[in-house]
Amino acid sequence: MSLNAKTVMSNGIPIISVNDFEHREYFSLVQQYAAEAIDYYMSLFGFYPHNYLIFIPGSDTICGACPIETGIIKIHGVNIMKEESDDYWKWIVAHEVSHMYWGYHVYDSEVVFAQSQLGWITLGIGLYFDKLFIDNKGIHCGFHESQVNAFRKAEKSGLPIHFGLSEEEMHQLDFDYNTIVLHGRAYSI
């Protein structure tokens, strides 16, 4: 597979996308959205916490993104990007850029496994600041409200919505703990 790499700058921070040539147009949009988010967060905090920001392709089918290392974000669903609004993608990029400030996991002294860590703290902080971003930019994606509503519905139905489930408890869940608890409950708090 032949790869395309492109760099744009935002406040002296290189924003790099590495992708196949077929998706270079979408990754250019992602870089544009990231530059806007970095500009906004730098106006709030006065700094960006890393020397770079890199975007790489993630899963083909999931819309969204996730930080995978310091300064590196996977963008999922680029092949179906047009199925979501520009506002959604502006928000998701701002959300992931926020993770660059607040980290993704806050570790406890306990053994850490996927989605059990106290990462909800940084998710909640990140969601608070990405909400400030979208409100400032007039972006309407409905994410925050949908997360709070999903959390409230899960709470009313008696689902195990507390933080710090054991690995065994996590494997027994039949709902999206990441969305409802780590995002919805964290933002609600």
Q: pLDDT under 50 segments (min length 5)?
A: 105-114
Kindly report how far apart the N and C termini lie.
Answer: 44 Å
User: How many distinct beta strands?
Assistant: 5
Shape descriptor = globular
Please list the strands of the largest sheet in the order they lie side by side: 1-2-3-5-4
Helix percentage: 40-55%
- Based on CA atoms alone, the radius of gyration comes out at 17 Å
Percent of residues in beta strands? 15-25%
Q: Spell out the helices and strands N to C.
A: EEHEEEHHHHH
Helix/strand/pairing category: alpha/beta
**Major sheet characteristics:** 5 strands, mixed
Mean pLDDT: 85
Number of helices: 6
Structural description of this entry:
This protein has 189 residues and is α/β, with parallel strands linked by helices. It has 6 helices and 5 strands; from the N terminus they run ββαβββααααα. It has helices spanning 24-45, 86-102, 120-137, 143-156, 167-172, 177-188; strands spanning 3-10, 13-20, 53-57, 64-69, 72-76. The chain has a 5-stranded mixed beta sheet with strand order 1-2-3-5-4, with helices on one face. A hairpin with a 2-residue loop joins strand 4 and strand 5 (72-76). Helix 3 (120-137) packs across helix 6. The longest helix has 22 residues, at 24-45. It starts with a strand and ends with a helix.
